[in-house]
Amino acid sequence: MDGIRIHDAALEISEEDLGELVAKRSGALAVTKLDFSLSPETLNRLLKDLTPRGKPSPKAQLSEGRLQLSTQQGNRRMGLDLQVGSLRLELSEAGIRLVSG
């Protein structure tokens, strides 16, 4: 599977905000449930598109329970190897917390 696949999602939008979105003026949408997959190819494409022009983009490799990110800047090679199995994102007033499972 290439791209982004939405397995499950729940969205809420008021009648007023729906009218604003349809009129392309403004609007608000609340996401109350989200379960999606991102393919390795799409992740690498996003990393490339988000990297400033002329800079080398990071590369991502995915395997079961592992995400490896690497980049090269001049003679310096940098990498991050997450061997955590799964991650859970928690949002609160204190900030964003990423917890391995």
Task: Provide key terms for this protein.
101 residues; alpha+beta; three-stranded antiparallel sheet; two-stranded antiparallel ribbon; 2 helices; 7 strands; 50% strand
Describe this entry's structure for a reader:
The protein is an alpha+beta fold and 101 residues long. It has two domains: 1-38, no CATH class; 39-101, no CATH class. 19% of the residues lie in helices and 50% in strands. It has two helices and seven strands. The strands form three sheets. A three-stranded antiparallel β-sheet has the order 3-4-5. Strands 1-2 form a two-stranded antiparallel sheet. The mean pLDDT is 92.
Low-confidence stretches: none
Main sheet: strands, sense, barrel: 3 strands, antiparallel
What's the arrangement of strands in the largest beta sheet? 3-4-5
Number of strands: 7
What value does the average pLDDT take?
92
**Distance between the ends:** 25 Å
Fold blueprint:
Layout: E1 4-12, H1 15-22, E2 30-38, H2 40-50, E3 59-63, E4 66-73, E5 76-82, E6 87-92, E7 95-100
Antiparallel strand pairs: 1-2, 3-4, 4-5, 6-7
Question: Short summary of the structure?
Answer:
This protein has helices at 15-22, 40-50, and strands at 4-12, 30-38, 59-63, 66-73, 76-82, 87-92, 95-100.
